[in-house]
Structure formats: C-alpha cells, structure tokens
Amino acid sequence: MDSAVSGSRIGYLPDRDQVLMKMLVAGPFGVGKTTLIRTLSEIPTLHTEEVMTETGAPVDDVAGLPDKTTTTVAVDFGRLTLPGEVVLYLFGTPGQRRFFPLWQDIARGALGALVLADTRRLAESFEIMDMVEEQGLPYAVAVNCFPDAPAHSAEVLRGHLDLHPDTPLVLCDARDRATSVEALIALAEHVLHSLPSLPQEQR
Amino acid sequence: MTAVPPRRRMVPAYLATGGRSRPSRTAFDRLTLLHSASPDPPQGLEAEHRRLWELLRPGALTLVEAAAHLRLPVSATNFLAADLVDAGGLQARSPIPRAQQIDRTLVERLLDGLRSLR
Ligand SMILES: Nc1nc2c(ncn2[C@@H]2O[C@H](COP(=O)(O)OP(=O)(O)OP(=O)(O)O)[C@@H](O)[C@H]2O)c(=O)[nH]1
Ligand SMILES: [Mg+2]
C-alpha cells in the first residue's frame, strides 16, 4: 500500500479558472509558522523536502545526493480557497540567512510575507525582515502572542522592531483562526497599497 | 513480436543524468496547476512518471502539492511533469490563468475573499 498517494485525503482542486496566489509565513525557529498555516489551511498541511547544498544553494537536481554537502529542509504549506475563485497558498519559510537562496526560490511570485515575531525574542525576526526587504516583498509583522510572554503596546513593539511607519503590525494567536485571518487581511491591504495604482500597460 | 514505434525513452531526468547534461525543460512555478490530459496513461511510463500520472488521474493539483504527496523534491516532480506534458499525459496551467498579471483587481479579489472569512 502506498499511503502517501492513496485515498480520499488528497484535496484535489476543482478544475475551474481559479487564480492561485501565494504568501509566505516567515519567522525564526518555533515562532508559530506551522501552527498559523495549520489554523488557516483547508487541507492537512503538507511539506516538501527541499535539497540544498551546505552553502545554502538549492540543488535543482538530486543526482548527486549521496554527497554529504547537501542537506534537506522541510518547507510546509497549506491552502485556503476563498470566494471569488481565489486559492491562497501559505508557505512556511525558514528565517535563517543561510537558507536565503532557497527562500528566494520559494518567494518568487509571492504577493507578500507575514513575518512572525515573539515578544520574548523580537530581535530573532530581524534577519528575516532584512531578507524580505532585500527581496522587495511587501510584508506585515504579526506578533504571535504566547500566554507566558510579556505583553507590550503596539507602539512599543513598533519601536523595538524598528518598523517603517507603513509596515502593518498586528497581534495574533497562531492557534486562533480569527486573529490569523486578520493578520492576512492586514498583509493583503498592505500589498494592495504597495501596488502601482495604474495597470502597467497604461504607463 | 510486433514492432513498437520509436518514442522518446522517458527516464526521470533526476535519476538518469549526472545533472549538468540534462536537457533544458520547462521550469514550472510551484503553483502550476497540473491535471490529466488523457483517460489512459501514455505508453511505457517509468514508475515515477506513472505515480505522478496516477496521482493526477482523479483531479488537479499544483506542482508543489503533487511533490508533497509523492514525497519527491519539487525540482524532481517538475521534471516528471514536464515529461508527461510532452508525452500528452498531463496538462499544465499557470497559477494565474489567461496570462493576467497580479494587479490591483486580483489583490482586491483576494482581500474580499479574506474579509468574507471574518
Ligand atoms: N501558546 C501558544 N503556543 C503556540 C502558539 N503558536 C505556536 N505555539 C506553540 O509553539 C510551538 C512552535 O510552534 P510551530 O508552529 O511549530 O513553530 P514554527 O515556527 O513552525 O517552528 P519551526 O518550523 O520549528 O521553525 C508549538 O509547540 C506550538 O504549539 C501560540 O500562538 N500560542
Ligand atoms: Mg514549522
């Protein structure tokens, strides 16, 4: 039996004219990326094993796999079908600089990134914020509120994170659907504001 | 024995080549939508191609979902899918149909959809 491919657990997409879009959920180790994706996804979260060299370059063929200079990184993702024939994919992406090339590969074509932060270790989100900015992706910061973490006002957090005044900051609980949806809305609104107001062909 | 018409041998590129010499193939997006294009599998599929074709027999999936279900890297699944498209067994559609760009209209649609979840 091949359980990986069998049965009704595979969530096929209706074969219509949906628009498929992608957003990244990024942040440091253990900040709640997978939890947020699981909270929002209509399918059980899936993951791919991405092969990289130790220097962080994605390996686009695995023929040389026995070579010890490659490592495997799991990238998890989920899917959210919305009214209006839109299907949004959320990709959890690692926050370490050494994964930057893999990260760029996944980021290609993404609308924007939700950067997760934990008030106990805000500075650990700086690295990923730098990477997102280098990539030119619009982003919003969602502070994942763990119960035992110190609570701060949004102004204080903005200051600590050194956010640009236009960058949205939201508080969320990655286990809670309503606040996670609000985080995505804040990001989508920011993406809309960052797009040129005229279609390109009219320039 | 009956004569078999010549056809391209479909060996998974990631298994068959040392890498550098593999022919250039369509690089799909992770969200390229793949679906079956034939009621029966193309003749003579290698096992890995066959698994992908069988996975997509009941319905459509994105490249990245197919990779996850097959437990293969996205790049390897890309090669299999490109072969199957060449062989007429699969169709591939870009994430945004009709060559639209991500523009304000599409992001507004996304926003409306997200707000409807409130
Ligand atoms: N209390 C609380 N716990 C949370 C919340 N979000 C995540 N957790 C817990 O924190 C731990 C890490 O969460 P993950 O979602 O696995 O974090 P991640 O960012 O995917 O971690 P890595 O993939 O390992 O980098 C898990 O045990 C979660 O149950 C939250 O909002 N509140
Ligand atoms: Mg995770």
UniProtKB/TrEMBL annotation, chain A:
Keyword Transmembrane: no
Keywords: ATP-binding, GTP-binding, Hydrolase, Nucleotide-binding
Family per similarity comment: Belongs to the GPN-loop GTPase family.
Protein name listed in UniProt: ATP-binding protein
Top-rank taxon, per record: Bacteria
InterPro entries: Gliding_Motility_GTPase, Gpn, P-loop_NTPase
SUPFAM superfamilies linked: P-loop containing nucleoside triphosphate hydrolases
GO molecular function, a single term: GTP binding
Organism, as annotated: Kitasatospora indigofera
UniProtKB/TrEMBL annotation, chain B:
Species for this entry: Kitasatospora indigofera
A Pfam family annotated for this UniProt entry: DUF742
Superkingdom of source: Bacteria
Official protein name in the record: DUF742 domain-containing protein
